[in-house]
Amino acid sequence: MNQKLLIFTDLDGSLLDHDTYSAEPALPLLHELQAQGHKIIPTTSKTESEVRHLKKSFDIKAPFVIENGAAVFLPADEFADFRDSLPVDGFYHQSFCEEASHWRRLIDSLATAFTGCFRRFSTFTTDEIMTATGLDKASAARAADRQYGEPVQWFGDEKAKIRFAAALINQGANVLEGGRFLHVSGKVSKGRALQWLEAAYSAREPETVFTTIAIGDSKNDVAMLEAADYALVIKSPVHPPPEIKREDSVFYSTLCGPAGWAEGMQSIITTIKDEAARETI
């Protein structure tokens, strides 16, 4: 029976360096795994525009998940019978929540109660996005092209942040904390997207055994770190690791960003091979 890895990887702070956005230390192993037929699946808070650009830059050929699980994009040549409709720019897509305008209205409804505590990402100019994120101008413009959710820059204290999140959740939103922003969207998560995509692959290739790996460094990665067969928590230079409940098959990198990605993935691959060898004895 065939065996394949579905590797769901966060981008910022995980595959990409937190400050430079470089993936260089991880690319040799990434391309080796891809050449072996495994799937490298960007699973991120980033936008469709951002991920499409990065996929081309890194030559990643796989589905991708945007805006913390709000939508999954499937390569049309791999999922040819997924939809009756025509693909857009080579991909079909499946969305799981309302569009961004809905969440912006909810956030704005809290402006008076939380005066001076936050600012919506869509009100930033391109130059302000560059300052807040360290992105270059073209990348900042792609980051602004959000379809399903709204990042929020938080200025208030922790107690106010908890009340703010609770008020949004009471109105049907989901609030996730990333490395730089709070992310407000629907009841979506990277974990649900992982499970949906694993099921889609299993239905298409019933003769293949798929093993899922989730890689992340922030609180918004917890759902997929809990859902995968193996979890890799990447060391962050700016915040403590996310708290996860599981204890089995969890790996923690000692290096940050893409260097930690390569370090941790190599450990997981070795473990998978050792476990397979023991099963054949």
From TrEMBL:
Its EC number is 3.1.3.70. One of its GO terms (biological process) is mannosylglycerate biosynthetic process. One of its GO terms (molecular function) is magnesium ion binding. Keywords: Hydrolase, Magnesium, Metal-binding. It comes from the Bacteria. GO terms for cellular component: cytosol. InterPro entries: HAD-like_sf, HAD-SF-IIB-MPGP, HAD-SF_hydro_IIB, HAD_sf. This is Glucosyl-3-phosphoglycerate/mannosyl-3-phosphogly cerate phosphatase. It comes from BD1-7 clade bacterium. The lineage of its organism: Bacteria, Pseudomonadati, Pseudomonadota, Gammaproteobacteria, Cellvibrionales. The gene is gpgP_1.
